[in-house]
C-alpha cells in the first residue's frame, strides 16, 4: 500500500459534491476531529455588535456546508488577506484548497481556478502546505494544522517531515482523541513503510504500538484491521497476518479488496499452504484475468504444490503474463525461477542475464545467487563461483540471513565442482554463521579438508556426515566410507 493511502479519509473535503450529500464533507471532518469551518459569531446578545468579518465568516461556513468549495475559497482568501495571522482562517483555506486540488481547471472560466483576489500581485498563490505552515506559525499549539500538514507531507513522500508534524500533534494538550488517533494511525503507516530516501528501515514494533494506541483512543476501524495484517505480514507473523487479512476480507468494506486478497495469498504461500492459496486464486484470476499479481501468485502456488502436473502449468501462465508485461522484472524473475524448478535452467539463464544487465536496476545479491544456481545446474560452476563471490561480499545487502546462507552454500558447491577447496571452506564458514551444519555441508567440508590433506579434520567430518546422513545420500555415504578406510590405512 502506498503512502498516498496513509489515511484515505484524511482528505475528506476532496469528495466531489456530485458524489455525496452536500453536508457530508463537513460532517466527516467533524467526526475525524478536524475543525471544518470557522468558528461562528455569537449573536445571542442583542447588545453585542458583530465583528466586521462576521458576514464573511458566515458566507464561508454556508459555502462549505453546501459543498461549494470555489465560493468558500474566494471568501476565505479575502479573509486571509484581512487577517493574515489567523490560524483558523489559514487552516480552513488549506483544507479548501486541498478539496479543490483534484478538480481539473475549467478552460471556459480560467478565473475560477484562482480568484482575482487570491493573492497580492507580488505574492505567490497559496497552497495547502503554505496555509498549514502559516497556521502553525500563527499558533504552534494548533493540533489540527499539524495533523493536516503531516498527512500532506506523507502523501507527497516526505516521511521524515511528516513524522515530525504528526508526532508533535500527539503531544499537544488541545488535540482531541480522534485527532490524536488519526496522527497515530498515520505514524503507524510511516513506521511500517520506512523511509527509502533516508535508508531508514521499517520499525514494526513502533508501528504496532502506534496502531494499538490509536485503537484505544477511538474504536477499531476496518482499515485498522488491514494495517494490523500488513504489520504482522512484514513482521513474518504469518498466522497473525492470515487471521487479520481474513477478518478484513470478511467485512463489507474489505470484500473485493484485491490488495488484501493478494496479501492473504502471500502469507498462505509463506506458510507452505499452496492448496489453500490456489483455492482463493482460481476464482480471483477468473474475476480479474488481467491482474498480474494474482496470475503470478497462482503460478507460484502451482510451483509449490509438489505436483509435477500442476507445476507444469506455471510456465505457460507466466509466459503469457510476461508477454503482456515485458518490462516487469518481477514477472521475468518468477518465470526464470519456474524454469529452474521445472528442469529448464537453459531457459532461465538468459532471463537472469537480462535482469542483471539492466543498468537502471539496483544491485541485488539474491539475483546473482539465482543466476548462479541456474549456472550450476547447467554445469558451469566457474561462472557461478564468480557471481557468488560478488554476492556474498556484502552480507548486509541480503534481505534475510537465510538468503545469505543460501548464497554461501551455492558458493561452496561451485567451488567444490572446480576443485577450489579453500573457497569451499571459506563459503562454509560464512554459512555456519547463520545456519547449523547439514549433511550436505558436512560432506562438502569433509572433502575440502581431505583435498587440503587435513586428514584428522576430514575423518572427523566424514564420521559426522555418516551419523546424520541416514541413507539419504547413498553416493556420498559410499564415498565417505571409502575415504575413511583409505585414511585409516595411511596412518
In a nutshell, what does this entry contain?
With 491 residues, this protein is mainly alpha-helical. The protein is built from 25 helices and no strands.
Task: Describe the overall structure.
Helix content is 65%, strand content 0%. The protein has 491 residues and is mostly helical. It has four domains: 1-41 and 53-103 and 124-195, Serine Threonine Protein Phosphatase 5, Tetratricopeptide repeat (Alpha Horseshoe); 272-348; 362-430, no CATH class; 437-491, no CATH class. Helix 14 (292-304) runs antiparallel to helix 16. Mean pLDDT is 85; it is low at 1-33, 40-50 and 103-120.
Assess the beta-strand content as a share of residues.
under 5%
Topology, number of strands: 0
Question: In the CATH hierarchy, what is the superfamily of the largest domain?
Answer: Tetratricopeptide repeat domain
Number of alpha- plus pi-helical segments: 25
**Which percent range fits the helix content?**
55-70%
N-to-C span: 66 Å
Low-confidence stretches: 1-33, 40-50, 103-120
* Average pLDDT: 85
Give the assembly state of these chains: single chain
Shape: elongated
Q: Which CATH class of the largest domain?
A: Mainly Alpha
Task: State the order of secondary-structure elements, H for helix, E for strand.
Answer: HHHHHHHHHHHHHHHHHHHHHHHHH
CATH T-level topology of the largest domain: Serine Threonine Protein Phosphatase 5, Tetratricopeptide repeat
CATH architecture of the largest domain: Alpha Horseshoe
Biggest pleated-sheet summary: none
The domain tally reads 4
Task: Determine Rg (CA atoms, Å).
Answer: 31 Å
Structural class: mainly alpha
Amino acid at each position: 500500500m502506498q503512502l498516498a493511502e496513509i489515511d484515505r479519509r484524511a482528505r475528506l473535503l476532496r469528495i466531489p459534491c456530485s458524489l455525496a450529500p452536500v453536508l457530508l464533507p463537513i460532517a466527516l471532518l467533524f467526526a475525524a476531529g478536524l475543525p471544518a469551518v470557522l468558528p461562528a459569531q455569537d449573536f445571542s446578545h442583542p447588545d453585542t455588535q458583530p465583528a466586521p468579518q462576521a458576514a464573511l465568516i458566515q458566507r464561508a461556513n454556508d459555502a462549505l456546508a453546501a459543498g461549494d468549495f470555489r465560493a468558500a475559497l474566494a471568501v476565505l482568501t479575502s479573509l486571509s488577506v484581512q487577517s493574515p495571522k489567523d490560524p483558523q482562517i489559514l487552516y480552513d483555506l488549506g483544507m479548501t484548497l486541498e478539496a479543490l486540488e483534484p478538480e481539473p481547471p475549467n478552460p471556459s472560466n480560467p478565473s475560477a481556478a484562482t480568484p482575482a483576489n487570491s493573492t497580492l500581485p507580488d505574492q505567490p498563490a497559496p497552497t495547502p502546505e503554505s496555509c498549514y505552515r502559516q497556521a502553525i506559525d500563527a499558533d504552534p499549539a494548533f493540533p489540527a494544522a499539524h495533523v493536516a500538514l503531516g498527512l500532506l507531507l506523507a502523501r507527497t513522500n516526505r516521511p521524515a517531515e511528516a513524522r515530525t508534524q504528526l508526532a508533535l500533534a500527539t503531544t499537544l494538550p488541545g488535540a482531541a482523541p480522534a485527532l490524536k488517533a488519526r496522527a497515530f494511525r498515520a505514524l503507524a503507516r510511516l513506521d511500517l513503510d520506512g523511509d527509502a530516501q533516508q535508508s531508514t528501515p521499517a520499525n514494526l514494533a513502533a508501528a504496532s504500538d502506534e496502531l494499538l494506541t490509536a485503537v484505544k483512543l477511538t474504536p477499531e476501524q476496518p482499515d485498522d484491521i488491514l494495517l494490523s495484517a500488513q504489520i504482522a505480514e512484514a513482521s513474518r507473523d504469518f498466522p497473525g497476518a492470515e487471521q487479520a487479512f481474513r477478518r478484513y476480507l470478511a467485512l463489507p468494506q474489505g470484500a473485493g479488496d484485491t490488495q488484501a486478497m493478494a496479501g492473504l495469498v502471500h502469507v498462505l504461500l509463506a506458510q507452505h499452504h499452496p492448496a489453500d492459496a490456489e483455492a482463493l486464486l482460481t476464482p480471483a484470476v477468473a474475476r480479474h484475468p488481467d491482474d498480474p499479481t494474482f496470475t503470478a501468485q497462482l503460478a507460484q502456488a502451482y510451483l509449490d504444490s509438489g505436483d509435477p502436473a500442476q507445476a507444469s502449468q506455471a510456465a505457460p501462465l507466466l509466459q503469457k503474463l510476461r508477454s503482456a508485461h515485458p518490462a516487469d522484472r518481477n514477472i521475468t524473475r518468477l518465470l526464470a525461477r519456474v524454469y529452474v524448478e521445472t528442469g529448464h535452467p537453459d531457459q532461465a539463464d538468459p532471463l537472469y542475464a537480462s535482469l542483471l544487465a539492466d543498468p537502471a536496476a539496483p544491485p541485488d545479491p539474491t539475483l546473482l545467487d539465482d543466476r548462479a544456481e541456474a549456472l550450476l545446474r547447467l554445469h558451469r560452476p566457474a561462472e557461478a563461483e564468480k557471481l557468488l563471490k560478488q554476492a556474498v561480499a556484502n552480507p548486509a545487502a541480503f534481505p534475510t540471513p537465510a538468503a545469505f546462507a543460501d548464497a554461501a552454500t551455492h558458493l561452496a558447491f561451485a567451488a567444490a565442482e572446480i576443485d577450489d577447496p579453500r573457497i569451499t571452506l571459506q563459503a562454509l564458514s560464512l554459512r555456519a554463521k547463520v545456519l547449523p551444519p547439514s549433511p550436505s555441508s558436512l560432506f562438502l567440508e569433509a572433502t575440502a579438508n581431505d583435498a587440503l590433506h587435513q586428514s584428522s579434520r576430514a575423518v572427523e567430518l566424514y564420521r559426522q556426515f555418516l551419523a546424520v546422513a541416514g541413507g539419504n545420500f547413498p553416493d556420498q555415504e559410499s564415498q565417505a566410507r571409502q575415504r575413511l578406510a583409505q585414511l585409516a590405512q595411511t596412518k
